[in-house]
Amino acid sequence: MRMGGATAKLWAPCVALFAAFAAAPAPALDLARPDVRAFADEMQRKHGFDAAWLDGILADAASQPRIIELISKPAEAVKPWYEYRDHFLTQERIDAGVAFWTEHRDEVAKVAKDSGVAPHVIIGILGAETYFGRITGKYRVVDALSTLAFDYPPRASYFRAELEQFLLLARDEGFDTKAVLGSYAGAMGNGQFMPRSYREWAVDGDGDGRRDLWGSWPDVIASVAHYLSDHGWRAGEQVVVPASLWFPKPDGLVAGKLAPDSTVKALRDRGLAFETTQGAAAPALFIKVDGATGPEYRAGFFNFGVITRYNRSVLYALAVNDL
Predict the structure, then answer these.
(1) What is the reported pTM?
(2) Quick check: is 42 catalytic?
(3) Reading across the β-sheet that carries 272-273, which strands appear in turn?
(4) What does 123-167 look like in DSSP terms, one character per residue?
(5) pLDDT tens digit sequence for 9-61
(6) I need a surface site. Which of 127, 141, 144, 173 has the fewest CB within 10 A?
């Protein structure tokens, strides 16, 4: 909308005021707060952190209200499947995935062979998490974790533990905590590993003696596969297949689980029709999501549950597989 001269003159001070407010720095973490001080003291006792180094990192951290707003309304919780799917399965992202897989074909093939993890799932995770490295997060990890650890009571204990892991990671790997960027939840790098996952499952895929989940695609690819493999991935098994109902009111089919809570035979006996190479006794779960024109049904298997260990969402696992 264009503005006339008089309106523009009246609007200009408002714009300047808004810009000044928007540019104002977020409040720094208060080291005198009892919970922050207790955390710092525990880290010194437990891990032998240098007090000045640790206080310097915590004092530099800033509480970000926007982070709390974002984590309170994750896309997995507020979007129906057809909108969530359309966000990830764009032609541009598919084309980017083809280009990425072509460029890294040998690395992906080697890792898939060594780990048993399906190549399309490794590629799908990288596409869903960071658009193949295009979107790795704009928040400082120290800000994200500190905000959620001390100003987000519903999950404070979880994020305090992740902040602990991040501090250990920074000390062990030599990270510059002022510069490390990630998601609003503190996930880092091209595979979006949380600090604990980085410390436990990141691997050196290119053999240079470092675990670099930002600059080394061999490290990223190998680390994603290692995470899935260590969480029980079963080589050669299917992830999920389309399904339909034998009759309108199936007996005892309940959707919503993240991991298999039934078997192939039991789902079929209760009225779910699907084709699979999995045996009758294989673990399986019923999946029902909101399609653009009505409910969509799937049958998921053990490896579907493994993908949800990467992100605790049925929609996420479906998007990874479909992408």
Answers:
(1) 0.87
(2) no
(3) 262-263, 283-291, 294-301, 240-245, 272-273
(4) HHHHHHHHTTTT---SEEHHHHHHHHHHH-GGGHHHHHHHHHHHH
(5) 333 333 333 333 333 456 678 888 999 999 999 999 999 999 999 999 999 99
(6) 173
